[in-house]
Amino acid sequence: MRDQETEMDTIKDTRHLRHFIGGEWTEAARGETFEVLNPLDDSLYAHAARGSAEDMNRAVTAAKSAFATYRDTLPKERERWLLRVAEIMEARKQDLLDCLIDEIGSPVQKAMFEFDKGLTMVRAAAGLCRNVRGETFPSDRPGTVSMSIREPRGVVAVITPFNVPLIKTTRLVCNALALGNTVVHLPSEMAPHLTVLFAEIVAEAGLPPAAYNVVTGFGHEVGDALTGHKDVSFVTFTGSSVIGQHIAEVCARNKTPSTLELGGKSPTVVLADADLDKAVPLAARSIFMFGGQACIGSSRFYVERPIFDDFVKRFAMIAGKVGMGDLRDPSTVIAPIISERQRARVRAHIEDAVAKGATLATGGGWEGNRCQPTLLTGVTGEMTVCREETFGPVTSIYPIESYEEGLARANDTDFGLSSAIFTRDIDKAMHFARNIGAGMCHINGPTIHDEAHVPFGGNGESGVGREGTDADMEAMTELKWITVQL
Ligand code: NAD
Questions:
Q1: What is Dmax (Cα atoms) for the chain?
Q2: Among the listed residues 393, 390, 395, 354, the one whose alpha carbon sits nearest the alpha carbon of residue 370
Q3: Do 149 and 54 share a structural domain?
Q4: If you take atom 28 of ligand 1, which residue's CA is the nearest one?
Q5: Using CA atoms, how far apart are residues 421 and 305, in angstroms rounded to an integer?
Q6: Are residues 333 and 410 part of one domain?
Q7: If you count DSSP H runs as helices and E runs as strands, how many of each does the chain have, helices first?
Q8: Residue 60 belongs to a domain
Q9: Please, which pLDDT band fits residue 14 given cuts at 50, 70 and 90?
Q10: Which of 135, 196, 202, 315 is the most exposed place for a label (fewest CB within 10 A)?
Q11: pTM for the complete prediction?
Q12: CB 259 within 8 A of CB 475
């Protein structure tokens, strides 16, 4: 009895997150909730409504009915709403930062980076409202004006991952809304509060009710009810390759178009003429930021033999100094790994590599839920860490005998998200950029780079399609060909 009372008190005292459907905050239809844990110490962070197919259906129905009028809102209205979203985000910056720190374990440095990026995404989306463009075509039929226009698709399903919830939410939700679509958003079950905060901001900004709807819950319980819904016209998914594959199959049944932004195993090639004073700190940034929980983190380094030992030594020295302190200390870089399941995966990748003969140049241990920055050498093809996404602060460094070997080995993967090369030789750098099987390539820069208006995305196991203002305009609108016979 006493235990039950204590439990009830705890429930009353913690955050309670609800769905946002049709402009109203609502409990789950079945009245169920689930726990959201702070990954730093697995303490209870919040309770959230546990969505079901019924909730999802209500959200899609609301979004569909809102679309009937939202599609005809004027660019100046959508622009004003989105700029207001940006203003309110600035006013609520501390709430968003606290959430990024306590809900998903972002060090404040990463939370600030994400906040700034998110703000830019919203403002860029506001600019998109006036930038929806069609074309005119010559016609072989005399007296004919021939043109294409772009129309919003309808209800867009936005599904976001835990690791950069604000960047993904601001970009994908705001681009969809800027283009005249309405949205149903399923956030990661590990980051629902961030999305609930964003929904509060959208509501305060005065967008029409039901233009933006949020259902919290477990993807495996409610995902299909969203992606397989006949009234959903487009799906944009960011998450793991396994779930992406499933979503592609569900979408195919209804012929629902989609973009898939999935996992990575992004390579960095470092040639002997590289400026190591610049390359090594950037290498460290590209794998240790947010404890390696970045899709575009570099988890493979191919380094030319003459500089291999020096590179490993310098990289290990930086790795040993990467901040692992208080998440609110600006020098902290390493984040807790988000969940016990993901921690088990990171542990298994390191243990498997070491058991099969790899060497730990540094790291390999844990401090609480945080994995130390870990560098592996002597990694071979039969080790899991060589091919699969680890999603932790773990990378492998391989010696190469030539640029050609570096390119071949960088391409020896099923993934194709980001890539990088460090060299002073522009011919090799551009050859690499043109021949790497990745959606993105950075010359003398880290694999981690994103901006609001660039075509961001990958190939193969890393996804299908691109996101960004122009890319989303193409993906989230439907082309219509119109002729006028004069
Ligand atoms: P995840 O695949 O576990 O979950 C992502 C989202 O999918 C969550 O919102 C979840 O609720 C939802 N989901 C789960 N099952 C579903 C289903 N059956 N139908 C519909 N939705 C479902 O990924 P995660 O652990 O949150 O994020 C990490 C992964 O995301 C990594 O693989 C990372 O590389 C990838 N990622 C990719 C990018 C990119 O832009 N390419 C960006 C960030 C993260």
A1: 86
A2: 393
A3: yes
A4: 239
A5: 15
A6: yes
A7: 16, 25
A8: yes
A9: confident
A10: 135
A11: 0.96
A12: yes
SS3 12: helix
Tokens for 72?
């005809």
Residues 234 and 100 occupy one common structural domain:
yes
Give the model confidence (pLDDT) of 311-336 as tens digits.
999 999 999 999 999 999 999 999 99
What's the chain's length in residues? 486
Q: What one-character DSSP code corresponds to residue 440?
A: -
At 171, is the secondary structure helix, strand, or coil? Answer: helix
Q: Give the integer Cα–Cα distance in Å for 290 and 296.
A: 12
Picking from 191, 214, 190, 188, the residue whose alpha carbon sits closest to that of residue 201 is: 214
Match 């940006």 to its residue by tokens: 86
Determine how β-strand 374-377 pairs with β-strand 394-400: parallel
> Other C-beta atoms within 10 Å of 130: how many?
12
Q: Which residue's C-alpha comes closest to atom 14 of ligand 1?
A: 219
| Tokens describing residue 192 | 């629902």
Mutate to test the pocket of ligand 1, among 104, 175, 188, 193 (most ligand atoms within 8 A of CB): 188
Decide whether any atom of ligand 1 lies within 6 Å of the 159 Cβ. Answer: yes
| E-assigned strand segments in 427-476 | 442-443, 459-460, 463-464
